[in-house]
Prior knowledge:
Elements: H1 5-32, E1 40-43, H2 50-59, E2 64-69, H3 72-84, E3 90-94, E4 107-113, H4 122-132, E5 133-144, H5 151-164, H6 184-191, E6 195-203, E7 206-208, H7 211-221, H8 223-229, H9 234-248, E8 252-253, E9 256-259, E10 262-269
Parallel strand pairs: 1-2, 1-4, 2-3, 4-5
Antiparallel strand pairs: 5-10, 6-10, 7-9, 8-9
Helix pairs in contact: 5-9, 7-9
Amino acid sequence: MSLNLERISEYKRRWSTARELMLGPATDLMLDLAVGANMTVLDVAAGTGDQTFHAARRVGPDGRVLATDIADEALQFAASKARDRGMHNVEFRVMPCEGLTESDATFDAVICRNGLQYVSDLTKGLAEVYRVLKTGGKLSVVVWSSPERNRFLSQSFAIAYRKLNIRPPHADEPWPFRFGQDTALKSALEGARFREVDVAAVSAPAVFTSVNDALAFQQLGAVELLRIIDRLSEADKASLWREIEEGLRVFEHDGSFRAEGELFVASGTK
């Protein structure tokens, strides 16, 4: 599975409305909990930068947002969009969460949307976030909740694991539902010394015009799922996608497609 600028652009163009319905409310809450005018903000695992741009608008021209990720192509796409929009208070750098190069106590806030669950060394990553935050600064994150509350994605992963005859990840391993247990995210942040930790559940429905559109969304943008499927032969990939399509039909009713989903939004203070 190749992540490139053309693929990213197509995904963003086709599915901006569906992504906003799915991720918008949780993103707004994440920013409400941490980001304000004139702040210096770090966006960890920023990806293609949707939440980065929202944060940049909130901090204003006298604030600054540094967006980091390990995926250079995603940051290139985000940087090009920032240039197109004339946004001068945003910077993009390839950098892992576990190895932040910024100085101690640099940022007023750190945000992370759907990236914390993939950090390979969570203890080190959270320690780095804590280090670069100013005293009293806020960390605010968005992650998926449990597989049971996100069947649109989780059942597709289950089909892929079965097809490849591999075990699903353990609860403490990187995968989309790493923090699915109700206390896992709170425990992780408190274990990293954050105070006043709070976790809220936010609805994140997957809404499409048809099952075909829902399938196309996963085939283009479900990056972690695609990395698993990429191990298969072309014939086995085609067979697996047919199984996934059949599984998605349970969410199609009366000519429309809707699968309920859920995200956790958590915040903590240094």
